Amino acid sequence: MSSETVRKGLISYLPNLRAFGIALCGDPDRADDLVQETMLKAWNSIDSFQEGTNLRAWLFTILRNTYFSECRRRRREVSDENGDYVARLSVPPPQQGRMDAQDLVKALSQLTEDQREALILVGAEGFAYEEAAEICNCAVGTIKSRVNRARTRLAEILGINTSQEFGPEPATEAVLLRNSNSV
Amino acid sequence: MMMSQTNDDKAILQDNSQARNTPELGEQVIVQLRSSYEELLHEPLPDNLLKLLEALRTQEERS
User: Fold this and answer.
1) Which among A104, A127, A113, A132 is positioned nearest to B29, based on CA atoms?
2) Cβ of A104 and B36 within 8 Å?
3) Could you give the CA distance from residue B43 to residue B52 in angstroms, rounded to a whole number?
4) I need a labelling partner for B8 at 20 to 30 A (CA). Which of A33, B22, B39, B56 fits?
């Protein structure tokens, strides 16, 4: 892959990097700074990109590492050990119905950082478990576990459960209940 | 190290078992996640990123 092809690929993945950044940190402005930093880092180190490896995964790794380095720096500057600041930012999304992008970001902010990144990478971006494990620098089994836990937790946050989603809708259920009571 | 792996394995087994019990639940969450994420992907890029993109494209043309 020539450096020209890499550069073109880099530009084409910008929307994905931005979406990942927003979903990861929950703040569009901060995500834009992250994307900008990621793009510049990648652009300036194109020569270190290994031909035959996954460009998208390489870019996501740079963004992810930049984000966590920044988080560590921020934690040193602003102590939020109990997560009070994050808790204030978190507003529960609608319990029923379609969730928009803003609801998604709010819901994701209630997951742990590990779970959030695993779910976005595998569930939303469509990375294979192996690729996500490489991006997050952990074992494949750990990623699988995080995705499963994140999925379950997100379902709780969104108020999704199997009986509500696949059973009768509330109005129908009320009629059925009334009928069964009158028998 | 061994202990940590054993705990990880237990967690995975437990998670897999939960996932098997509620496949529809997992599917439903992923469908909603993808649909909302799609909106994020199609959001217009802000000015600073558009400018960066333009600068990178110009640099690419020159090189």
Assistant:
1) A104
2) yes
3) 17
4) B22
State the CB neighbour count (10 A cutoff) for residue A125. Answer: 21
ipTM over 0.85: no
Taking the model in full, what pTM does it have?
0.73
Q: Please give the structure tokens belonging to residue B22.
A: 């509620």
**What radius of gyration do chain A's Cα atoms show?**
20
Counting one residue from A and one from B, how many pairs have CB atoms under 8 Å apart? 121
pLDDT value, residue A100: 82
Phi, psi of A88 (to 5 degrees): -70, -30
Give the span between the Cα atoms of A142 and B56, in whole angstroms. Answer: 37
Nearest to A19 among B22, B24, B37 (CB): B37
Residue A119, token pair as written in the block? 């779910």
Find how far residue A141's CA is from the centre of its chain.
Answer: 18
**B23-41 vs A101-108: helix crossing angle, rounded to 10:** 120
How far is Cα B30 from Cα B26, in angstroms, rounded to an integer? 6
Q: Cα–Cα distance between A24 and A65 in angstroms, integer?
A: 12
* Chain segment B5-42, per-residue pLDDT in tens: 566 566 555 555 554 445 666 788 899 999 999 999 99
B-chain CB neighbours of A144 within 8 Å are: 12, 15-16
